[in-house]
Design a protein that fits this description.
The chain has helices spanning 7-20, 23-55, 59-78, 93-104, 107-137, 144-169, 171-194, 204-230, 237-261, 268-285. The chain is an all-alpha fold. The chain has one domain: MFS general substrate transporter like domains (Growth Hormone, Chain: A, Up-down Bundle).
């Protein structure tokens, strides 16, 4: 439950943002939200360790209650209801099915879900493999938390960068070029592993930069892809956000789990599969047309 419950505010956050903003402005605001979502997990282990050191490990559970109380109080006092009465849907099976059909009948939403699944698949595969890569390939098991935190901190800057450029260049263009650059970097890294290093461990700084680029891509892509998916779903943003988030997460885990199991003591399986996922995501994003200049 501790892992499941925090996912619900994320969906509600996306729905609230869509109620208040649309298109590129939504992508800009979502980028700032994603930046916080990225940085907080980096700081959370240190905060938890500090609470346990000062007050004992049981205080960590009390801190959950304190943080929840602060969050809900702030929400109740500062955030008015954003869902207009005419867009409220009764909680009935027929209406739920109708909403699901409406979401999956929209081409932009379906393509965005597919691209999100592929991008998350790359990210989750890297997460599943990263500890083994640092520990077994580079003998950096003890310093892995430091390197991982550094990767997450660097990737958070991509959300800030996206917020600065998305209004000018558009969500689709940012995602398209990010995927293209990522695919090119991954292809070069894979080629170097097969030729220059001939299956041996690559240079650690280069491997670290490539792994960081995967995290960086997620920061550039996820906020924009959520905004693309929810752009035509303003009248049912909450349900659409739930469907988009759950479907893309389940699909990405289904993609990432086998990749994680392919680890053979080298980075070649992870790199090759990331290249396939990134290339497929790039081809799919081209299927989204922006005839009216909104996305």
């Amino acid at each position: 439950m501790s892992l499941n419950l925090p996912l619900r505010p994320r969906v509600v956050t996306l729905a609230i943002i869509r109620d208040l903003f649309a298109g590129r402005q939504m992508a800009r605001i979502t980028s700032y939200v994603m930046m916080v979502f990225t940085l907080v997990p980096v700081l959370a282990p240190s905060l938890g360790a500090g609470i346990a050191w000062a007050f004992g490990w049981r205080a960590i559970f009390l801190s959950f209650a304190v943080f929840s109380f602060i969050s809900i109080t702030w929400l109740l006092l500062r955030q008015p209801e954003t869902l207009t009465p005419e867009n409220r849907r009764p909680f009935r099976p027929g209406k739920l099915i109708e909403g699901v059909v409406a979401v999956f009948s929209n081409r932009h939403v379906v393509v965005s879900i597919c691209v999100q699944s592929l991008v998350f698949g790359m990210l989750f595969a890297s997460l599943l493999s990263s500890q083994a890569v640092f520990g077994q390939v580079f003998d950096q098991a003890e310093s892995f938390p430091i390197w991982f935190g550094l990767m997450a901190a660097i990737s958070a800057s991509s959300s800030w960068l996206n917020a600065q450029i998305v209004v000018r260049f558009g969500m689709r263009n940012v995602v398209k070029w990010a995927l293209l650059v990522q695919a090119a970097l991954t292809a070069l890294f894979l080629l170097a592993q097969l030729t220059v290093w001939s299956g041996e461990a690559p240079l650690f700084p280069i491997a670290f930069l490539w792994l960081t680029s995967v995290f960086f891509l997620a920061g550039l892509g996820i906020g924009n892809l959520n905004a693309i998916a929810l752009e035509p779903m303003g009248h049912m943003a909450g349900m659409a956000a739930s469907i988009v988030s759950s479907t893309s997460t389940i699909a990405s885990i289904a993609l990432a789990a086998p990749i994680g199991q392919m680890f053979d003591g080298t980075m070649i399986p992870l790199t090759a599969c990331s290249l396939l996922l990134g290339s497929a995501a790039f081809l799919l994003i081209l299927a989204i047309r922006d005839s009216d200049g909104v996305i």
